[in-house]
Structures are given as C-alpha cells and as structure tokens.
C-alpha cells in the first residue's frame, strides 16, 4: 500500500512538471501566425512529455529508495516484535529516513532497558539484592531435581528477632537499610563457608524479615549447626544506622534433605516449623526439625481450628479476679479473664490458647466476644448498684485494628454500659510504643469516664517521661518485681523506687501476683494499698465473685455520704 502511494505521488509530480513546461513553452514561443502556433504547440508538447518523463524517472528513483527504506524498517520492526532487539538498524534506513532510524534505535534501547528492569524485578529483591521468593524457589528446585546423590543438603529459615520494633520506631527507610545490612552479613557467612570448603549457597529473602539459605551439599548435621551459629553470631553484632545503633538476633529453623523432605515445599514447611519452635523457646535459637516438632505443629494447627469452632459454639466463659483495697477491705475492680471450656479437654487457660489466637488473628474475634460479654456484665452490675469497674485486657493486635474503638463504643451502646464501669488494661510494651492516633482515642475514652491501666509494668523498657504523657489512671506492677521483696533488700529498693515514681506522677499502683502475707506487709510499708493475687483470691465465676466481693449498697451510700 505504501509503495502504490509513493508511485502515485511520483506520477502526479511528473504530470505537474510536464504541464508546467508545456504552458511555459506556449507562453514564451507565442506567435500570431496560426501555422507557427500549431508548430509551437507540437514542439511544446514534445518538450513537456520529455520533461515529464525525466521528472517521473528521477522522482520514481528517489521514491523507490525511500520505499525500500520503509520496507526495510517495516521488516526490522516486525523482527523486533518477535523479540529481536539486538540487531542494528539497516544503513539504508539511516540514509533515507534518518529521523526514523534515530527513533527506532532509541525505542529498541528503551525496550531493552525496561525488559532488563522487569527481569530484575522478577528475580531479585529490590531492598536486599538477594533472590526473591520466586527466584530462590526456582534455584533450589533445580538443585533438588538435578541431584543424583543422597548426600545431605540443608535449608535454613531465618526470622529476625526484634525487627518490627525497629521498623515501627525508626521508620520503614531505616528498616529497609537494616534489611540490606542483614543481607550483606548473610553473604559474608556464605563466603566464609565457601572459603572453608563447605560450598556455595543460595540466599533469598522470602518476605518481610524472613530470609532463607540453601546449601546443596553438607557433610552432616554438625555442619548445619555450625552454619547456624555463624549466622547468629553475624546477626547479633550491633548494626549502625547513622546515629542509631540497633541490636538484632535471629531465630533459625533447619531442615535437612532427604531426612526431613525431598521436595522444596516439604523442606520449607519443616524449616518453618523448626523456626517457630526456636522463636517460642526464647528467640535467638536454632532448632533442627524433628518428629516431635511435627507433632507439636500438628497440635497447634488443631488448636487453631478448634479456636474458630469454639467461637462459633460459644465455648468461652469469663472468670473474675478482684483488685482489693486493703484499707477498706473492699474489692474496687474486677479483672475479667477468659477461659475455654473445651469439650474434650479440661478448662483451658489463656496461656495455652491466647498466643495461638494472637498469631493466627483469631484474637480479634475473641477480643470482640470478651468485650461484648464484659459490657453486658458491667451494665447488669451497674443496674444492680455495683460500682466496681471491670477491667479488660487489650492485645496489641486488637489495638492495631483501625476500628477497635468504634467496636468498643458499639458494644457499650448496645448494652448501655456506663464508661465508668470499664477499664482497659494495656501491656507496658504496647503503651510505650503507642501511635498518636491510639493515644488520642484513649484520651477521649478516658474523658468520658473509662479508666486506662498499664499491665505487667516492669517487664519491659519504660520511659518515665513517656509514662507521664500517657492518659493512664493506674499502673499494675508485675509479679516479677515483687516476687523476692520479702527476702531481698535490692528487690525492696527497686520496688520502692518504682512505686514512688508512679505515685509521684499521680497514678494509682496495683500490685499483681501477691502470693503471701509477708509480701503484703512489706508493700504496705512502701505505701501500696491495692493488691491482686492468689493470696487474696483466685479467679472465679461471676456468681461466686458477687457472693464474695459485691459491695453492699449501704456501704456504697456511706462512702458517698
């Protein structure tokens, strides 16, 4: 089509040239003699035909060269569409159509750059430069598929300890910088193993703060344990991020081929189970997969499934433990504690199922159930004249939900629960790292009459300046601070200092975990009056609690009067 068009243009140009020459010949050779005039017309016509033919031939030749260049360009573009981006642009295109030649070269270069970038994105993690999940899995699968020996291989699943806190406190940019430094140290570990003759490894970043290493050939389990120690040593050294100094650790799970699996999915699953066990044994550990860990993981998975069913079947119940003012001898608040009436087990305590609920995400639904049940109970107590607050433990995951306070207000409105009947207990670590959005919401709830308490105080790192800024009414001292107070002068000094500082900030102090009278005697001397613990009362069902600790209405009126 393009060739026909160019030829038509050449023909039109030749006709126009001939017509112009014919007209000029007539004008310049005009004669009044009719015979001469006819001769002149004939000569002009011959000259016009010759001129038109020559013009057509010249233009056709030029157009043919251009058409050939266009045809060549079309063929080159078609080959590029089929993947040939490397061949150069033909010289005749550059000669006849220089602008098109430059545009084609620029286009091919840009497409090659984009394809290289896409390939990089598909194979490498952009933060660390390590193989991403897809690339790591492909490389390991090639190693496993091409094996013609049963020699041992090992997969290491590495989860950083404490990375989330760094990410939250220093920001994602610092977190990415830290991940890149971790990747560098893992490379150094592998290079050291190569130098020692152990062999090279595939290193990858699966997601977040999870890294993997695969050694295709190892002499035995002892070599795997040695590599794990090298990784832990490398990651335990301090990281310097500008003016910030960060200390991390790692929990490592190890799965060995072929004992723990002969496929990548089996090895990953086994290493993940071992890593999970290492993390829950105190972090900073390395564990090799075993059949015992497999049974533990299966039991945990069953517990997760049972948790969901328990919520549907309403198998949970509440027990209440009093916080007692030893001056008046009356309970001033009750902490609501959830229990699981499992149909096939004994009464399951929260220490068994709450961590599972936290990690599986079921804690949000469980927290909603507790919140609704406490609001309903508190409303009944208020209607009966009881003015003891009921305290609810709030988990980190619940607070992280954007609509947590909206759901709390909805539960209070549904049951018509006065805010003055409720208290929220938040752990020390959560309180110290709370977002401004959550602080504002807590302050608003506190203004409406709801109490805020910090639970397990003394188990983490507390900033007293930060504590002063928090909208808090009450601080609960953890049992670990008072356990040895009757026998240790150092424990008495520490506890006395902590209590004095908290009371100096205008907050109430509740001592948790009181187990004997000797502890209470010392704590009363220090200035504590609010206690909670087995020495005073164990958690009990609602009816037993009200029978024993309900404050008679006449006593309430006397206090009010």
TrEMBL record:
Pfam families: EAL (PF00563), GGDEF (PF00990)
Gene3D superfamilies assigned to the protein according to its UniProt record, in alphabetical order: 3.30.70.270, EAL domain (3.20.20.450)
Record-linked CDD domains: EAL, GGDEF
EAL domain segment(s): 300-553
InterPro entries: Biofilm_reg_signaling (IPR052155), EAL_dom (IPR001633), EAL_sf (IPR035919), GGDEF_dom (IPR000160), Nucleotide_cyclase (IPR029787), Rev_trsase/Diguanyl_cyclase (IPR043128)
Superkingdom of source: Bacteria
Domain called GGDEF: residue spans: 151-291
UniProt name for this protein: EAL domain-containing protein
């Amino acid at each position: 089509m393009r060739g026909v068009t160019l030829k038509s243009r050449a023909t039109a140009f030749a006709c126009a040239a001939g017509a112009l020459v014919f007209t000029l010949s007539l004008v310049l050779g005009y004669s009044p003699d009719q015979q001469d005039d006819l001769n002149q017309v004939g000569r002009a016509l011959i000259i016009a035909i010759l001129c038109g033919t020559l013009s057509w031939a010249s233009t056709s030749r030029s157009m043919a060269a251009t058409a050939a260049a266009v045809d060549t360009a079309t063929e080159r573009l078609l080959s590029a569409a089929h993947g040939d981006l490397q061949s150069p642009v033909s010289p005749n295109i550059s000669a006849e159509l220089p602008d098109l030649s430059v545009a084609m070269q620029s286009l091919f270069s840009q497409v090659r750059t984009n394809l290289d970038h896409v390939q990089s994105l598909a194979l490498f993690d952009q933060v660390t430069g390590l193989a991403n999940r897809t690339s790591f899995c492909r490389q390991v699968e090639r190693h496993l598929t091409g094996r013609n020996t049963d020699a041992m291989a090992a997969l290491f699943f590495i989860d950083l300890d404490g990375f989330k806190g760094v990410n939250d406190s220093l920001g994602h940019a610092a977190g990415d910088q830290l991940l890149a430094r971790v990747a560098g140290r893992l490379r150094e570990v592998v290079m050291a193993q190569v130098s020692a003759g152990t062999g090279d490894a595939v290193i990858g970043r699966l997601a977040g703060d999870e890294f993997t290493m695969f050694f295709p050939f190892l002499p035995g389990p002892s070599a795997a344990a040695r590599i794990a120690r090298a990784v832990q040593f490398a990651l335990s050294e301090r990281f310097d991020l500008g003016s910030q100094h960060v200390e991390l650790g790692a929990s490592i799970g190890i799965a060995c081929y072929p004992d723990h699996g002969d496929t990548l999915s089996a090895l990953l699953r086994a290493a993940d189970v071992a890593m999970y066990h290492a993390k829950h044994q105190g972090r900073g550990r390395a564990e090799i997969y075993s059949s015992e860990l497999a049974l533990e993981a299966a039991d945990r998975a069953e517990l997760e499934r049972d948790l969901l069913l328990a919520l549907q079947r309403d198998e949970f119940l509440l027990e209440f433990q009093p916080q007692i003012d030893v001056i008046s001898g009356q309970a001033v608040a009750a902490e609501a504690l959830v229990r699981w009436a499992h149909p096939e087990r004994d009464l399951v305590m929260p220490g068994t199922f709450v961590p599972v609920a936290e990690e599986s995400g079921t804690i949000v639904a469980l927290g909603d159930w507790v919140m609704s049940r406490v609001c309903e109970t508190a409303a009944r107590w208020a209607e009966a004249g009881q003015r003891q607050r009921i305290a609810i433990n709030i988990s980190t995951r619940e607070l992280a939900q954007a609509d947590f306070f909206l759901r709390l207000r909805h539960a209070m409105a549904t049951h018509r629960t006065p805010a003055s009947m409720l208290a929220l207990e938040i752990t020390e670590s959560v309180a110290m790292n709370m977002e401004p959005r959550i602080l504002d919401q807590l302050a608003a709830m506190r203004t409406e009459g709801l109490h805020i308490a910090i639970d397990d105080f003394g188990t983490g790192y507390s900033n007293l300046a930060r504590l002063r800024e928090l909208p808090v009414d009450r601080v609960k001292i953890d049992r670990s601070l008072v356990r040895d107070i009757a026998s240790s002068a150092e424990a008495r000094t520490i506890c006395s200092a902590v209590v004095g500082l908290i009371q100096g900030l205008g907050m109430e102090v509740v001592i948790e975990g009181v187990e004997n009278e000797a502890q209470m005697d010392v704590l009363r001397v220090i200035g504590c009056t609010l206690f909670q613990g087995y020495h005073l009362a164990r958690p009990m069902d609602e009816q037993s609690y009200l029978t024993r600790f309900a404050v008679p209405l006449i006593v309430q009126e006397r206090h009010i009067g």
